[in-house]
Specification:
Elements lengths: L3 E4 L5 H12 L4 E4 L6 E3 L2 E7 H9 L2 H12 L2 E7 L2 H8 L7 H18 L3 E5 L2 H14 L11 H4 L7 H6 L7 H11 L2 H6 L2 H5 L6 H12 L7
Parallel strand pairs: 1-2, 4-5, 5-6
Antiparallel strand pairs: 1-3, 3-4
Helix pairs in contact: 1-6, 2-4, 2-5
């Protein structure tokens, strides 16, 4: 049976809201020590943070280790940040002295980095109730046998790089132009990338086990690959 696992160390208003939503939506759950993430459901990992916790994890750089571990272990990763930046900065000012503008840039800059550079989704919501609702909805939908929307990127794409090899690699989910160029630099050709072990690919900066395995499967599959 599919079950939501909740980190046993989580004891917050958000956790209480998640438990209420699970009961309301008949989602089985259990609490246990989780090495990665705050909540997990099948191949989905959730990292949920208040705006203040998110800000601290950005400043001490712990966030990037957390997201790297999530990417290596799960297919689908979601960061949920709840609250307001003003509340986070107000709490930060009790201990830190950096100016408002600098902290704001770091806060939103981290969100931008996640959106642009990582194989991870991020949602910024106003409170715990909405965060809990999102976690519950994803858990409810994830096991359902449903049609998955797959945009036809190649037909709609208007801009390409000057290197067809890079363009081809970028059609694989999670491969940005930066990652595609790194692959070409390290392995030389698409054929050699396909022949590389996923463990070799996973060692590259910005790659994890899940993305490396996905790339290897796409390049070596004899079946139709949907973009």
């Amino acid at each position: 049976m599919n079950k939501l696992f909740i980190d046993s160390r989580e004891d917050s208003e958000l956790t209480n809201e998640v438990l209420l939503k699970c009961k309301e939506m008949n989602i089985p759950f259990t609490k246990e020590w989780l090495e990665i993430g705050d909540y997990t459901f099948n191949n989905v990992c959730f990292e949920a943070k208040s705006t203040y916790d998110f800000l601290l994890s950005v400043l001490n750089k712990r966030l990037w280790n957390q997201l790297d571990n999530m990417d290596r272990a799960f297919d689908n990763n979601l960061v949920i940040v709840y609250g307001s930046f003003q509340d986070a900065y107000k709490e930060y000012r009790q201990y830190g002295k950096s100016p408002y503008g600098m902290i704001k840039n770091k806060f939103y800059g981290a969100m931008g980095k996640i959106i642009l550079d990582l194989d991870c989704n991020i949602l910024f919501v106003p409170n715990e109730k909405i965060a809990a609702q999102l976690i519950a909805v994803v858990c409810k939908m994830q096991p359902i046998n449903r049609d998955v929307y797959n945009p036809r990127l190649i037909k709609q794409r208007k801009i390409s790089t000057s290197d067809l090899r890079v363009d081809v690699l970028m059609t694989v989910k999670g491969i940005s132009e930066k990652k595609a160029k790194l692959l070409i630099k390290e392995f030389g050709s698409i054929m050699e990338i396909g022949e590389a072990e996923p463990s070799e690919i996973a060692m590259l900066d910005g790659f994890g086990k899940v993305l490396a395995q996905r790339l290897s499967e796409v390049l070596n599959s004899e079946e139709k690959q949907v973009i």
